[in-house]
């Protein structure tokens, strides 16, 4: 179990966003959630190690439905959003939709 009694496998849905900002512990949502046709994508979660050596990885493929500049991504509790467990911001990455 992680902090707050949540399992490390709980946050396995990935979403991405656009817009400016800096990820912080107080964030409860992405800056501006990117508009894609499906709900958050289920990722494959792997865990290794314990304590200070523990590592958690969630890998998912999100398909762009429009041309956007992605600046942040996060792991959510459910396909429809719910609690945001992990969020990161980064230099912009342009994606092109179908």
What does this structure look like?
The chain is mostly beta strands. The protein has one domain. Helices cover 0% and strands 47% of the residues. It is built from no helices and seven strands. The chain has strands at residues 13-18, 32-33, 41-42, 44-48, 55-59, 68-78, 81-95. The strands form two sheets. Strands 1, 2, 3, 6 and 7 form a five-stranded antiparallel sheet that branches. Strands 4-5 form a two-stranded antiparallel sheet. Strand 4 (44-48) and strand 5 form a beta hairpin. It is globular and about 40 Å long. The model has no long low-confidence stretch (mean pLDDT 80).
Mind describing the biggest β-sheet? 5 strands, antiparallel
**Number of helical segments?**
0
* Mean pLDDT reading: 80
* Percent strand: over 45%
Q: Total number of β-strand segments?
A: 7
Structural class: mainly beta
Helix content: under 10%
Q: Rough shape?
A: globular
Topology at a glance:
Blueprint: E1 13-18, E2 32-33, E3 41-42, E4 44-48, E5 55-59, E6 68-78, E7 81-95
Antiparallel strand pairs: 1-2, 1-3, 1-6, 4-5, 6-7
State the main characteristics.
two-stranded antiparallel sheet, five-stranded antiparallel β-sheet, mainly beta, 98 residues, globular
In a nutshell, what does this entry contain?
With 98 residues, the protein is mainly beta.
